[in-house]
User: Fold this.
Amino acid sequence: MESLEDIASELAKLQELEGSEFIVQLKRITNHNGFHQIETDPNIFTMGGEQDDDYENLLAAARKAVELGYTVYILPNPRGIRTADFIFVRRGVYKMYDLKTIQGKGSAGTQLKDSIGQCNRILLNIQSNYSGRLLASDIKSYFEANQKALEVLVFKGKKIIPVTKRLAMNPLFNRLFRQLYEK
Assistant:
């Protein structure tokens, strides 16, 4: 069985890769034999970490992603490397996300800023009555501050709202986002 050090070096390589090389590396990571299927969720794979404080939040978000048709790989958190939390796979498309669980009324902007340099796709799992206007502003500010950002994926209840940089920079973004978020 391959060790946590092996996966750590594979995850570290992601920070130097772009484009198709990045995707090839994501596929290589998901094929690592250290992953095991979660008994209760056949489309969720993990590699340890079940004792971590944030594991329940990771599992809750992974289950929502599975409902949307994704296969989910919960990534380990090796010491010394800032890594994302997930690799989502759907219809042959691989994407890596960092999870930010929003439980309070004023934490999305701070959490988005904290993720800069960690991953270029963020998953916001909203578990509070967070203001749509404030969240739209937080997301736009995140894209303005992070040139490498590609997507913010918002889970709110049964809704999924993908926000690309292009959409966030649209002058009508605040209104468009609120229509999707608040209906």
Remarks:
- The mean pLDDT is 90.
- Residues 111 and 149 are 14 Å apart (CA to CA).
- The helical segments are 4-13, 19-30, 55-67, 108-114, 132-145, 165-168, 173-182.
